[in-house]
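[audit] Reproducing an earlier prediction to check determinism. Same input, same settings, fresh worker. If the tokens differ from the archived copy the diff job will pick it up downstream; this log only records the rerun itself.
[audit] input (123 residues):
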Amino acid sequence: MTHIEYGEKPNIQGDYLLSNDGKKLLLCLSFEPKTEIPECIQRIDSCAFRGCKNLCIVDFSSTVREIGIFAFDNCYELKEIEIPSTVGVVGGQDFSFSGLEKVKIDKEKTKVLYHAFLSCRIE
């Protein structure tokens, strides 16, 4: 879960709350329909985009290695994504209850776990 330690200054860059080292995207602060994951991001934290109901388009940077559980849970307008081959595992209900219908993923490089796309209508 995302939290800030007492006395720690939040690292806000654009529409995102990032970890102090700038490598983890902790929380999306935007209500915009499109988001571009910055090149510095290696991990999208648990619940970072959870419930972003307007989110339609996610452009992942090639530096993303991990996606936390429930990261895009309940993003109803998210219909199509391309997950970079740098992501090792997609799981933990990362995209559950989203509006996903199409997912482009390299299954030779990225392992997809059972509940990764729970309740999605993927073709």
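[audit] rerun output stored. Observation attached for the diff report: The first strand starts at residue 11 and ends at 13.
[audit] end
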